[in-house]
Amino acid sequence: MTTSLTGTLALRENDHTTYTLEFERSAGVAWHQPVPAGWVGGRRLSVVLPAHNVAYCLPKVLDALRAQAYGRGFEVIVIDDASTDATAEIIATHPAVTAGLRLRTRCGAATARNLGTYIAQGETVLYADADMLLPPSTVADLAARATDHAVLTGFRHNLPPDTSWPDNGPELTADHRVTWRPPVNTPLLYSGITLREPVVGRPLEHTRDFRDLGHGRMYYDWDLPRMVVTALLAVPRAVVLDVGGFDAEFGRIGWGMEDTYLGACLIAAGLLVIPLRQAVGLHLDPPDAAQQWQRKLSTWPATLARYRALLSEPARSGRRAALTTAMNSLLHSCEVLR
């Protein structure tokens, strides 16, 4: 009998202690400390940004990538998901961009990331949102720790429109995976459980940097796949291709869950999910952030239902050829911006 993805996840532990200690021994740098400026170690890395109507912030995001204090070159790939503002023009002219493509019809972030991953040359793909401003050491910190066996997750600090840069830079505690205040007497979105008393959760701390989320365990509304967030995430490209990349159907349905499902597939493939507390980006909310959030939430039930259905299927593997065929076809219809 074929094991479901849920069954496979129950077999996977997430004790990354040996992994992190080996890095500290070999590099002489603590796991949660930035590497020195100009660091040249680590793997070849490709940054992939899916972009849709982000002209309001994309120049700042690309400026920050160009200013990274990493002594080794890395490519920046931006996929314009059929934007209707000046996003394409920015991609075509900004010096930080190595490669830029424009999808002629909107396909969703999952497809955009798949296309970026397919054309990437790096051994590691660093996914970031096109509205995430990265501090100077972020790329080096992730590249230095990347291997074929780890999913490295950073964090985000949401900055509302017209708000100045925080005095001390992005704060780790601003991420919901670090400080979590769920609603009371309301079913939680992911697990469906209802909390009757107020909770101030510390998912990162209370799960010992996600180690205690192995074997399919939960922390209230959180499990290990849900800790995999593509706002800032470094993954081995070869494994992403083998599992078939992101499931593009999520993008057609609506918002959410495509990164959680990719995380489940990567965990099932034997990868460890390891946080970097020093890797915190500043998420630049759009002017209509409240309205966009409500539109996203309206599609959540459909994307969650698809995710639950996929959990009952076997873990994906051996899908590189199918992804290659799909991406080659998509490339022929793209506009080359850079």
Q: Which band does the percent of strand residues land in?
A: 15-25%
> Which outline best applies?
globular
Largest sheet: number of strands, sense, barrel closure? 9 strands, mixed
- List the secondary-structure elements in sequence, H or E: HHEHEHEHEEHEHEEEHHHEHHE
- Beta strand count: 11
CATH superfamily: Spore Coat Polysaccharide Biosynthesis Protein SpsA, Chain A
Q: Report the mean per-residue pLDDT as an integer.
A: 95
Portion of residues within helices: 25-40%
- Backbone structural class: alpha/beta
| Whole-angstrom Rg | 19 Å
**Name of the top-level CATH class:** Alpha Beta
How many discrete domains?
1
The low-pLDDT segments are none
CATH topology: Spore Coat Polysaccharide Biosynthesis Protein SpsA, Chain A
Tally of contiguous helical segments: 12
Termini Cα gap:
49 Å
Numbering strands along the chain, what is their spatial order in the largest sheet?
5-10-6-9-4-1-2-3-11
Looking at this protein, list some descriptive labels:
Spore Coat Polysaccharide Biosynthesis Protein SpsA, Chain A; 338 residues; nine-stranded mixed sheet; alpha/beta; two-stranded antiparallel sheet; 11 strands; 12 helices
